[in-house]
Amino acid sequence: MLMCELNRISSHFxxxxxxxxxxxxxxxxxxxxxxxxxVLQFFEKTxxxxxxxxxxxxxxxxxxxxxxxxxxxAHLLDAFPSRLEEYDNLMTGQPIWQGRTQGVGVITxxxxxxxxxxxxxxxxxxxxxxLRKDTPYLAYDQVEFDVVxxxxxxxxxxxxxxxxxxxxxxxxxxQILDLMPAGDYRVQDKKVTPPxxxxxxxxxxxxxxxxxxxxxxxRVPEGEVYVAVESxxxxxxxxxxxxxxxxxxxxxxxxxxxxxxxxxxxxxxAASSPTQSPSSPRWTPSWARWTDEPPERRQRGSGPHHRxxxxxxxxxxxxxxxxxxxxxxxVSPEAMSHIAELLDLTSAExxxxxxxxxxxxxxPVGRYVVSVCTNISCLLVGGEELxxxxxxxxxxxxxxxxxxxxxxxxxxxxxxxxxxxxxLQVNYRYFLNVTHDEVDGLLDDxxxxxxxxxxxxxxxxxxxxxxxxxERWSGHGAEGLPVSPGGPR
Length: 489
Ligand code: FES
Description:
Blueprint lengths: L1 H21 L4 H21 L8 E2 L2 E2 L7 H24 L2 H7 L7 H6 L4 H5 L7 H4 L20 H25 L17 H6 L1 H13 L8 E7 L2 E9 L6 E8 L38 H5 L5 H5 L7 H12 L4 H11 L3 H10 L11 E6 L2 H5 L2 H12 L12 E6 L11 E3 L2 E3 L4 H12 L42
Parallel strand pairs: 6-7
Antiparallel strand pairs: 1-2, 3-4, 4-5, 6-8, 8-9
């Protein structure tokens, strides 16, 4: 239990370090790594390894705690509180951090449960599911700690939960210092735990026990069993089930952390995956538009030719998301479920990819998606004023769609045209060095349907062919040869 809580602290420090860096809090990569290393040093002293220490074994642990372990832990418990305060100052109240995490990646409790999410991701939605409290194991029922939950289900909550779970784990570690019992560190059942190394040299019986444990393992009680623990990233479970001789039992283990699992009755109470629900509405793809699959095979759900042509079915995921968007104008939950089924992926894997790429819209959008860049190069030359101008002109804020369903306005990160800032895209078609007057003219033309020929409705990305100005390719190709697959057509 001590090692499990230290591991939670180490894992959450890793989260703070790497996610801090990814979101612009560069110092966090150094601080998080520094603090985590104190924990890893303790692991090394205890088990001989910093990571993958294989310390917890059936019947106990691999070795006793090292001399001075109480002093080492006291040092950790002394060092961390002030540093956690620093992280609070560095990130929690910091406007840039808040801006990049609050309201971002929001999931509801229902969505989290449907995805089989556990751990901090589920708790961020306000669901107080923690196996240490709900089905206590080890000695968790003998220590005091709180289950930290969020309210909004966003990235900020998931960050704040991990930060505060470090504090709760420290509370537990402090209690373990008082509660740690004296005695052996593993059961003395020689059919389960190996004998001490020295005994093998002097006892034939010890040698036989050692040999049988390391060659055959040991017998577990008959029947099927599923046991889960609360790992730092969510439920982590081991299953043992009967198999045929010579190995009468098969054991598997794995995490159900956040986005990689399907719902199961044990971790979230859901009865089946949304992709398997017979009552869920089915999205019917228009395969006929782009596949040579004969209709009778299509109806059997054998999948599009993209799938057959690719070595890994997963490679068809992005093309299929494009197809879904082309068909409906957005990528609906039904489409994602159907794609998951076609490619034998979890719905969470499909959602993970669809939500990673801003080009896939997971809400219905207008006929024209106007994407205004407000990243640094554009910001310096009026990107933000351009966005405000569009908001005023269209009467909606960024992220919203006009009442007539013609325009969706969005504020985007760099669209890779920085040398021609300020710039925007309409349905992924570029408009560079734009002035407010030019934007007004463009919006008028779009509203009146005067640009239908060169700007098709949103979702028809695969039909958009934009001429790249020749000067942009100068020097990139020999004269008379095609300059690039993406060059002038
Ligand atoms: S910053 Fe706007 S296009 Fe790069």
